[in-house]
Request: fold
Amino acid sequence: VLPVVAIVGRPNVGKSTLVNRILGRREAVVEDVPGVTRDRVSYKAEWTGRQFMVTDTGGWEPDAKGMGMAIATQAELAMRTADAIVVVVDATVGATATDEAVARVLRRSKAPVLLAANKVDSERMEAEAASLWSLGLGEPYTISAAHGRGTGDLLDRILEAL
Ligand code: GDP
Ligand code: MG
Reply:
């Protein structure tokens, strides 16, 4: 049985883009319209010779009532079923109320939680992630899922945590 890494976070932060980056191919559904990923989809992945499952989550209508609740539920589910959890936040937006709701759930996680500050597409954007320490999930790892910036380091951290 392979260890499971769950990717959680609110819509449009780049979860599916990160999953594709981890898989090294286009498979998870990425859309400019948030909420296209079906509830949860798992894929077999490999990094530095180690295999694991990566679970993409999503599929909520961005403005539907109870979206925050659905995401919190997904985070709860991840806590119970995953061996490590990656919370993705959009560093160009900063922590939203929904991000904070997810963080509140995951601060109780027994499984290791890593905070990925996504959309840091260039060096000069690095500083924008510093405010994400406020989520109480430890160091924000800056990445650009779209360009692959920092994602190798994040994968190293994920495997260390497993
Ligand atoms: P999800 O809803 O969290 O799964 O987000 P998606 O992976 O579907 O991405 C939402 C939008 O953000 C898409 O338009 C992506 O192209 C864009 N996006 C994802 N990662 C990055 C990134 O690292 N940098 C930038 N600039 N855009 C990104
Ligand atoms: Mg998605």
User: Anything to note?
Assistant: Strands lie at 4-8, 40-47, 50-57, 84-90, 113-118, 140-142. Residues 9, 11-17, 30-32, 34, 37, 58, 118-119, 121, 144-146 surround guanosine-5'-diphosphate (ligand 1) (CB under 6 Å). The longest strand covers residues 40-47.
